[in-house]
Amino acid sequence: MKRLLPFLLLIPALFAQTPPLEELIAAARGGPSAPGLKDRIAKTLSARGGTAVWGQDYLFVADSPSAVTISIDREPAVPMAQIPGSTLWMLLTKMRTGVTHPYQYYAAGKPLGARGDAVGYNPDSYPKPGVPRGTVSEKRTIVSKIYDGMTSNYWVYAAPGVDPAAPAPLMVWQDGQGQVGEFSHSRLFTVTENLVSQKLLPPLVYVMIQPGQSPEGRAMRSIEYDTMSDRYARFLMEEVLPEVEKSYKLRPDGYSRAIGGESSGGICAFNVAWLMPDKFARVHSAVGSFTSIQWHPEEKLEGGNVYPFKVRKEPKRNIRVWMSDGSDDLENQFGSWPMQAIQMANSLKLREYDFHFRFGTAAHGGAQAALDLPESLAWLWRDYDPAKTTQDFRMDPAEKDKPFFRVTITSRDPW
Questions:
Q1: Is there a contact between 160 and 203 (Cβ–Cβ < 8 Å)?
Q2: pTM for this entry
Q3: What is the pLDDT of residues 156-168, one digit of tens each?
Q4: What is the DSSP secondary-structure string of 59-102?
Q5: If one looks up domain 124-400 in CATH, what number appears?
Q6: Which of 32, 38, 257, 414 has the most CB atoms lying inside 10 A of its own CB?
Q7: 398 vs 415: CA distance, rounded Å
Q8: Could you report the per-residue pLDDT of 177-217, keeping only the tens digit for each?
Q9: How far is residue 273's CA from residue 290's CA, in Å, rounded to a whole number?
Q10: DSSP state, 221?
Q11: Which DSSP helix (H) or strand (E) runs through 329?
Q12: Distance CA 244, CA 394 (A)
């Protein structure tokens, strides 16, 4: 047995798998002619490329029949190298972590695709040796009566330490299909497992819901997320969560429940908590669409653009809110995402809500939220006590001493 012991101790290392993103970065270090690089990009990212980040290594891959350059951090564009036998162009570079890096591809002197943001992930967004892993269900499908036959997919994730026989804290994620997988854009599972191991999060259950489709095949995302009514909240409470509770018992108190999302999913999360604070008292809203997407005055339906004023004038809700946005977020016929985010933050501050607002430079997307996720989840669930069912959420005294958010115009002449 003594002779076998060293070998047995080596088994975990022998069978440890290198994360695919790390493998891709390692292969890219061999340059565009590295054997199998094109196939590895297609398998790990997509056949048309994408971005991969591992530590300080950033890999950018664009698809174009003509030569591609890339501007990063608004610096002058530099050439990318073509991968032989393909229309893919790559650049591998080292940059700072802990920030987002805006980038833009160019081909034939014109922008190629939309501006993007690469995420310099923080340490807790990477898997760590010895940290227990959670479990995720197969895709499940529900047919809604509240939404007249809409079908919607969802997944259930249980963090390490969740006991199916004991009621667990809950967090619901909109656009949940984008959160599934160890290396989703936000790296939600990895972050959660690291924070649970550090006792910065309780062992909790995630319900990750994909926007539904009507029986006629109509996309229902905006109807579900941007409509200012209790319909989606009732869909969760009356249809989705009872199905989840066939597998896991859930805490019923709002103190033990959070809800999060990005863009329209971000306003959806706030709307659910605003209407049902006794059921969901913690909100994670990234690039929230607090705009007029589903404003229909002919139907006497308000738009999300009124929320900054509802927060100022309506009775205060007992909720805790993390918000984030970026200065390059959307401007279109429905409104101004960054301006509305600032309005929301100032309204929450005016009424002394327990809130945090992170305003970066990223465009519309999940880059800032992914960068912040270890911090934002720990902040949202800070001082959670499973022995309690309620808490009076109060503004941090440090926030009280800070001024309101103000705007400085940097993209135009000052006069």
A1: yes
A2: 0.93
A3: 999 999 998 899 9
A4: EEEEE-SS-EEEEETTPPPEE-EEPTTSSEEEEEEE--SSSEEE
A5: 3.40.50.1820
A6: 257
A7: 35
A8: 999 987 889 999 999 999 999 999 999 999 999 999 999 99
A9: 15
A10: H
A11: none
A12: 31
